[in-house]
Design goal:
single chain, about 110 residues, OB fold (Dihydrolipoamide Acetyltransferase, E2P), 6 strands
């Protein structure tokens, strides 16, 4: 009996490291079309896709503009940005982070 418990404990302890790492978020670059604050959805049009990509914004989604944290209301349609998202087995994809930079470049000044 003790040998079986020790063997089971050894099996569970040896696989714990591989289960502890969450899957990495996917990155999508494109033009942010819209963010709907009522339905918590963000729509982005990647250059290599025919259809826009829509994902859910959760309460812990991070919004970063010009390397500083900001609110979701700061996103305007037509901005180019990066969306980091995850796709669960069941349900819609959800956004973990949105990054964009809307400062003028040197040739626009």
């Amino acid at each position: 009996m003790k040998v079986m418990l020790a063997a089971a404990a050894l099996v569970f302890l040896s696989t714990a490291d591989s289960w502890a790492q969450p899957p990495r978020a996917r990155e999508l670059c494109g033009v942010i079309q819209a963010i709907d604050l009522q339905t918590h959805t963000l729509t982005i049009q990647p250059p290599k896709r025919d259809q826009p990509f829509a994902a859910i914004c959760k309460h812990d989604t991070k919004f970063i503009r010009n390397r500083k944290f900001t609110e979701a209301a700061a996103i305007k349609g037509g901005l180019r940005g990066f969306v980091y998202y995850r796709s669960p087995l069941f349900g819609k994809p959800f956004v973990t982070k949105v990054v964009w930079n809307n400062t003028p470049t040197d040739h626009e000044r």
